[in-house]
Write a structure and sequence with these properties.
Elements: E1 7-11, E2 18-28, E3 37-43, E4 49-53, H1 54-57, H2 82-94, E5 99-102, E6 105-108, H3 120-129, H4 137-149, H5 172-187, H6 192-208, E7 209-210, E8 218-219, E9 222-229, E10 235-243, H7 248-251
Antiparallel strand pairs: 1-2, 2-3, 3-4, 5-6, 7-8, 9-10
Helix pairs in contact: 3-5, 4-5, 5-6
């Protein structure tokens, strides 16, 4: 049952998908025996008023308090609806907190601009915090590095994998770079092998990245990158294997797009 002042998630056709809306009125239209209650909702984003039936209102979910800071880990949310998840991601994004956790998984929302959490200084600080740090690519790298080097019994760990996936323009290439940078920082690695691993991305991007309608630096290939460590737990070498290169782009880029950067 609706109550005045109750705040719910209202589905809207705009890009926001869901907005907070507050119940401002509830009335009964006594015109026919089949008349149903009509509930008036005022949207928080633009103040517009929307009317919904009581039956439709029952399917709406209560919205949390917008004055509370958004959760760093979405598993901490009491309400596990799409609206609540998107709201937390959107509010963190507005604060330039582009990383959010779902348990061990890190969600990254591409800001398309430099942010403080991705500088070399920030990476070094996050590496010191390790697995207990704020949601970040570095935390995923720290979990993998610790799993590789130690176990609960104190013995040596085993090989680890970090999967980076997302649509074009999501920031996969940059996330991979940050992972390599974090692994170098966590292991205290330096020297030719480490520098070559960090700088190899530029060469791969030259031959495998191109401008598309969605992304000015879109990777048009898949990549499997292996990082090998020596007995001192420092980077000794790296190996990159490229697959599914978009070969047709070489002879005929689509309209509004370009060939690979090297050309």
């Amino acid at each position: 049952k609706a109550s005045i002042g109750q705040v719910v998630w209202l589905s809207v056709p705009e890009a926001a998908a869901w907005v907070r809306a507050e119940v401002v009125a509830s009335s009964s239209a006594n015109l026919t025996e089949d008349a149903t209650s009509v509930i008036s909702l005022r949207r928080h984003d633009n103040g517009a008023t929307t009317r919904v039936s009581a039956e439709a209102f029952e399917s709406l979910h209560n919205a949390g308090d917008a004055s509370l800071p958004p959760a760093e880990d979405l598993t901490q949310l009491e309400d596990s609806t799409d609206a609540t998840f998107l709201d937390a991601l959107r509010r963190r994004y507005d604060m330039d907190d582009i990383y959010t956790a779902i348990g061990p998984v890190i969600i990254s929302v591409n800001p398309y601009k430099p942010v403080g959490g991705c500088t070399s200084e920030a990476i070094a600080k996050l590496c010191q915090e390790g697995e207990v740090g704020a949601p970040h690519v570095v935390r995923a790298a720290a979990v993998a590095f610790n799993g590789m080097t130690t176990t609960e019994s104190g013995d040596g760990g085993r090989a680890q994998s970090i999967l980076i996936s997302g649509e074009s323009g999501a920031g996969k290439t940059e996330a991979c770079k940050l992972c390599l940078l974090a692994l170098a920082e966590l292991s205290g690695s330096s020297g030719g092998a480490t520098e070559a691993a960090l700088e190899s991305a530029l060469l791969l991007e030259a031959f495998g990245n191109a401008k598309t309608v969605y992304n000015d630096n879109s990777s048009r290939f898949g990549k499997w990158c292996a990082v090998y460590f020596d007995y001192k737990k420092r980077i000794s070498s790296c190996q990159s294997q490229v697959y599914l290169l978009e070969k047709t782009r070489i002879v005929g880029p689509s309209e509004g797009e370009r060939n690979y950067h090297i050309f």
